[in-house]
Amino acid sequence: MSKFQLMTKDQEDLVAMVHDFMGKKVDPYVDQWDRESHCPMEEVRELMDLGFWGIDVPEEYGGAGLDVTTIMYIRQAMAYHDAGFTNTFSAQTFGWKPVLLAGTEEQKKYWGQRLAEGAFWAMCITEPQSGSDAGNCKTKAVKDGDEYVITGGKTFITNGGVSDLYTVTCSTDPSKGKHGISLFIVERDRPGVSVGKHEDKMGIRSSNTTDVVFDEVRVPADHMIGAEGTGFKTLMKMLSRTRPTGVAPAVGVAQRALDLAIEYSRTRLSFGQPIGKLEGIQFKLADMEMKLQCCQSQLAYSAALVDKGIYDTLVGSCTKCFVSEAVLDICLQAQQIYGGYGYSKEYPLEKLVRDARKQYVNVLRVQATTLPIAVASFVTMVQFLMQGYLPSLYDSLGIYIPLIVVNCIILGRAEAYASKNPVLPSAFDGLGMGLGFTCAITILGAVRELIGAGTILSTGSSALVTIPESVYTPASIFILAPGAFFVLAMCIAIMNKIKAKHGMEPAQVPDYCSKDGSCDSCANTMCGGKAFAEEKKQA
What we know:
Butyryl-CoA Dehydrogenase, subunit A, domain 3; globular; 4-stranded mixed β-sheet
């Protein structure tokens, strides 16, 4: 097992205590729980009693108040033995997190104490029609005097059948889309709350996953978390803070897979020697260790950022994507080393692959689409640069500008369309993007000329088109430049025609901007905060 070099003595003691408990109380029953899809609440509560109730609830609100890095180590150690058990343990305080971000002081004290006393608190976000699209919420909350009446259903709720409390995303104003979503605290024993079917999952089968139904459930108005309509923003802030600990159990699964593969390679004989002496097996083990070390390093970095109050969405999303993919690959490689035995339920690799697959399916697809869209708009240029070339001036005006501007227009507005806020770029947006990229790439082209890098269009095995050298002259730039800008202007004119047809003003500031500075949860990823800045200027 890899040793974490940066753990403090207290963290090492906590991790050792978790391993000891899991080895005695969980390992002997893991296979049985997996077969029966049994959630071992008695054992989970027994572990909680060792000082883990409200593990991430600040001490002033009655919890253990552990930092993100320590929680990350604990969850990795726990998942080394069983990922499903870890899921149940980890989700004890999931519904509390929005309260810590947006709740009143009274809510933090009262509900924090409930967690410290042994309550489980689930988060109800996912709905059948929306999956991971949290902004597509059909569960409604209608105000009736001093109460709200909640009607709807949630699915794939972790700890849905064992929790005492729920934090529920509800639409209080459907006309506003995701900006009309609010969060409510709902006790399980309220009339109208019921638990639906239990999911018969492929992996993490000892984790309780159910539907939760709300049939005209009445809750007091003081059960709302934050102001009405701020639920989606709070939700996005919460998720950006939980990514390092959320993906940590997967690394524990990968560590177990690697340890089992190493042990098996030492004892399994083939052609009169352990298979670990075969170079092909050694390469696999080395590759697995390399990926595991990268996962641990990335997790530690992400957790350290959150502990310092730095909530970087890009780092969090990249961490979840990379770790999820690497963990599944490590488990599959370990299964391959086991050969046919890796496919048998008599050996542990089959279960680890199923558990790792859950993380991959649940995370990779979502995070790959929520990485900042600005990264995607540079893909075309980066592909060329990775071939070892800098773009020439001819390249810039003839190829890069149209491709990059089109990327920006399409990718930069994709999320706006998904959010039912169809804002197309104005002429100002288009010209600004085009001129900005022109300047940047022309500078690269000038550097290319100075270092004599040659022309990508006419030299090398990766040449795109064969262009006579006589055409590639400074004079050609003055001929091509007007053409490139003419094409750009035509594209912008067409976009504005479309906008006019649909009754959308060609304004540079989208009309759906909340103008409250919540840029981190805004769909207009190309705005860069200018809408909020303009509002402040006018004020």
